[in-house]
Design goal:
By secondary structure, this protein is an alpha/beta fold. Helices cover 40% and strands 16% of the residues.
Length: 298
């Protein structure tokens, strides 16, 4: 389905240790995490809080395990702080990723975000940008895209639950309001399905803007419980709303088919934040790797 070298497979460390909730996987070491990634059959990783930030040191740990860095999350605060503050942090983050050989930078706007608030109901309190905030945000995200281009890297925007860019309508406004040469899209299956969006429609509509893919599945019963019981994003994660491909409600076969037909090039990143005390991260990494191999040949 995919040509050799066209797509590389990574897995995010968030299944081993959760950066937003350090109590989840707090005792799991960095070395255990990356060793199990490699053992499960992955060739890349995104960056977690336990990872060394010295490129020389980090590359030494990764290279002997046959791993690369695909990207890393960056929180922008374009709607709530002066641009210069975000820009300075972004350049440090960009330079680290560039030194690690990454080609894309994952960015999500966290101004007024509720994704990290343990007791804030997710769907009832989702932030909605004002017109003024949209103007500031769209200008700022393109300026960050310019900074990424200085290193010949792409900014891939991560639509995310509990933020101002979550829904199809909001993704559309972002895509239509930005230059394709400056802002690309990270396509995350789990966040689209959890939000109630048509994930195949978004994929088809913005295929030419997608330069990074997160493969995440959703447990339908938990997603419905989050809505019904008005709980937070983090509580939903702790209760198991996300899981690896092949373990939830999403059929990934048409996703793989569409991406293959469009000649997508880049990373597929399995990202399924769960409580590692309940969902053994190595076991689920193996399950994800098997599902991907069986359903798209990678």
């Amino acid at each position: 389905m995919f040509k050799e070298g066209q797509v590389k497979l990574a897995i995010a460390p968030i299944g081993w240790t959760n950066d937003d909730m350090p109590e989840l996987g707090g005792t799991v070491t960095f070395e255990q995490c990356i060793s199990e990634m490699a053992l499960a059959g992955f060739s890349g990783s995104e960056v977690g809080n336990k990872y060394p930030r010295d490129p020389v040191i980090l590359n030494k740990y990764l290279s002997i395990r046959g791993l690369e860095i695909a990207s890393a999350w960056f929180s922008s605060f374009l709607t709530s702080k002066p641009f210069e503050e975000t820009a300075e942090d972004f350049k440090v983050h960009r330079d680290f990723l560039h030194a690690m050989g990454a080609k894309v930078i994952v960015v999500s706007e966290q101004g007024n975000s509720i994704q990290g608030q343990m007791d804030t109901a997710l769907f009832e309190n989702k932030p909605v940008f004002s017109e003024e905030e949209w103007t500031v945000f769209l200008d700022g995200i393109q300026r960050l895209g310019d900074l990424a281009a200085e290193k010949e890297m792409k900014l891939v925007y991560h639509h995310h639950m509990g933020t101002g860019v979550q829904t199809t309508e909001e993704i559309t406004r972002l895509m239509e309001g930005t230059d394709p040469n400056k802002v690309s899209l990270l396509y995350d299956t789990g966040h689209l399905v959890f939000s109630g969006e048509d994930y195949l429609e978004v994929l088809t509509k913005y295929m030419d803007r997608i330069h990074h893919v997160h493969l995440k599945d959703v447990r339908a019963d938990v997603a419905q419980k989050v809505r019904d019981e008005k709980v937070s994003f983090l509580q939903g994660v702790k209760q198991g709303v996300f899981t690896v491909p092949g373990d939830g409600l999403i059929d990934f076969k048409p996703i793989f088919k569409l991406l293959s037909e469009a000649n997508y090039e880049g990373w597929f990143v399995v990202e399924a934040e769960q409580d590692p005390a309940i969902a053994n991260p190595f076991e689920y990494a193996v399950k994800a790797r098997k599902y991907i191999r069986e359903n798209c040949g990678l």
